[in-house]
Specification:
Two copies of one chain form a homodimer. The first copy, chain A, is α+β, with helices and mostly antiparallel strands. Chain A has one domain: Winged helix-like DNA-binding domain superfamily/Winged helix DNA-binding domain (Arc Repressor Mutant, subunit A, Orthogonal Bundle), CATH 1.10.10. Chain A has six helices and five strands; from the N terminus they run H-H-H-H-E-E-H-H-E-E-E. Chain A has helices spanning 13-21, 24-34, 40-47, 51-63, 87-90, 93-107, and strands spanning 67-72, 80-85, 115-119, 126-132, 144-148. A two-stranded antiparallel sheet of chain A has the order 1-2. The longest helix of chain A has 15 residues, at 93-107.
């Protein structure tokens, strides 16, 4: 075991990520964004959640640069706002796919998954996997270890 | 765009996964479990969170089969309980690594990541990646699409 208690978790990247997306509705908003939803009314319809909750979650994601507001205007209508994934937001996708596949494996309906993520280029289904920089793929938790990184803070 | 509004999200695996782990402290408890922490006092020390909150999170994870309680007894002491990751819990590890690497990229200290996950077999750093069943690796969100799976529920 990594000597957990010699290092602070204050600057842990898991913690910092969860400060942005560590809330159930935030991930569900992102799910809809990855599915192509961009407008407030469509998020509200897809999620069936309270509008003030949705507003807060969208504002948090914009504040952290995960979504950005983009104006649009339909003919004869006033300008309105859409929400688009930024590059930072697109990079969260492996988290969502990993959450989905765990649910698919442990809690899907008997009929199977509700959604399949596939590779646009070839049509084959996509999985979130762990791979090392030396090219070993499909690693399990048990194949890995952790060590303090360059930013590790020693406990006083 | 996948025609989002023809299908229900009721049986979405992301939602079901978040019913188990969609809460910031739950992921932080799991972080410590992956780091090798097993005892209540050690979780409390590592996380610095309220003990009743920790108790609830551990109970939820046990209830869903992510952790299991294991009795242990130190010489001359009464029997106590440790928390061990189950196979179901170990399979959540890609989610944690994906959360961590996003935080490493977008919010780490200037010095770098606090923690490095590496492959025990070869020492190389580990990444969470998306790969398709036909062998295409390192896929980005933009390289993928979604389609209804066998369990998709049509909207009435």
């Amino acid at each position: 075991m990594f000597d957990r208690f010699r290092y602070s978790a204050e600057n842990c990247s898991v913690h910092r990520t969860l400060d942005v997306v560590g809330e159930k509705w935030t991930f569900l908003v992102l799910r809809e964004a990855y599915f192509g939803v961009r407008r407030f009314e469509d998020f509200a319809h897809a999620l069936g959640c309270a509008r003030n909750l949705l507003s807060r979650r969208l504002a948090t994601l914009v504040e952290h640069g995960v979504l950005r507001r983009e104006p649009y205007r339909e003919p004869g209508m006033r300008e309105r706002i859409e929400y688009a994934l930024t590059p930072k937001g697109l990079e969260l996708y492996p988290v969502l796919v990993a959450l989905m596949q765990w649910g698919d494996r442990w809690s899907a309906d008997r009929a199977g998954p509700a959604i399949v993520v596939y590779h646009h280029g070839c049509g084959a289904p996509v999985r979130a996997t762990l791979a090392c920089a030396a090219g070993h793929e499909g690693l399990a938790a048990q194949d890995t270890r952790v060590r303090p990184g360059p930013g590790a803070r020693r406990m006083p």
